[in-house]
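Table S2 (text version). Query chain:
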Amino acid sequence: MTGTCDVWISAADHARLMNHLYPGDRDEHGAVLRAGIVEAGNGLRLLVRDIALAEPGIDYVRGQYGYRALKPTFIHKHITGCRDERLAYLAVHNHDCDDWVDFSTIDLESHERGYPALRDIGKGVPVGALVYGRRAVEGDIWLPDGARARLGEYRIIGQSIARRTARPRTVDDGGGIYDRQVRMFGKAGQDLLAEARVAIVGLGGVGSLVAEYAGRLGVGELLLIDPDVIEDTNLSRVVGATATDVEAARLKTEIAARLILTANPAAKVTQFPFDVLNADAADALKSCDYIFLCADSMRARLLVNAITHQYFVPMVQLGAKIATDEAGALSDAMSAVRSVRPGEGCLWCNGFIPSGTLALEAKSDEDRKAQAYGTNEPNPSVITMNAVAAAQGINDFLFDFLGLREASGDWRYEHAHFLARKTMKVVPHREPECSECVRRYGRGDALGLPGVMARPVTALTPKHGWLARWKEAVGAWFRRHPRT
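Corresponding structure-token output:
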């Protein structure tokens, strides 16, 4: 085997699979995972879309060579289904072990007898096997180009995120500049932060705070997405911005990058100073470990919500809102923290991406600006309320991404209403036929993403004025040379 391949699964599907593999009889059981395929910038990732449990004695029977095996009719049904839907095929079974697991010689010999034929039947989809211990997983993935890959990481994504490998990770001692926080979550946790690839969409009042917190926590790689230049009215709430930045018309991504690198010079920071619907920005989000959505746009919500369900990238939508009544009196002042996970907490199901607003945003830049603020006047915004949302959001990231707490049962959004002095925990619902969290669930590269702009075509530029052509040329240069 020459490479690695990651497998991501929702916490609910993992729990269902483990209940099947370990019912308490200490016997061997089997199943087939059907998985979406993602060719991300950092390698191949498979997303478990659904599970076919093999019924003992009917689908999982005495083997000709080994102890037990999947029945040929069961295999054929699911490999042809995977072929037709362009999903990867993964056969799984368990061993009676805990945090260390590997394939037996008999397992590997059976792969060599069977998987070349399955790869032919699959016609270009990856095929392979996973073997489970109670807290360990190993893989043998046969790729369409003839290569074989071991399992890199098996990631379980729910409210909290857990990881499995074939054997426990080894960790070096010492926390360095992060000593005080390492005393809380250990060197292993700090290493996970250093390896994390995190995106911040929107670098305004909330996003700039998230950037500073992420930099000081020691997050290793950050993608910054925002097309805007700093203005003087931003100085009261965009952390790190100065009057000199306004005079220089600096991009908000530049200011956030400076803030992060001041806190953590070792961080890798990539700027995307354009709309999140830009094809390159959207592509970059697919390979992230976590996304902070801090932008006002409904189009941004639609895209990032889709990426979470389609690519299994966890995200949190953060924001603050101040409302006044017809007489101009303050009627509400609130901050919102809405966590979204694959198949859970969908912003579309819960009415936070109104179709009417999306239609308005699609009309023109002027319409989008008017819609975003409700009137032609800018919305009120105060740094303290932004700080509540940002601190809660990144604190949730810390505890969930490092697996420091257990799931709390019902999935909840958190809304803080400061006038009423109350915090509401809202249980989001799920539409059974949702076009986003159901239809897109785990499909990976098999589906397109909503609203993503086509890459610029040179032949179109003569139709535009000189200013538009100049802007497109600058945008194209930045896309070819993302800032690192």
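Notes on Table S2: Confidence is low (pLDDT under 50) at residues 457-470. The first strand starts at residue 3 and ends at 10.
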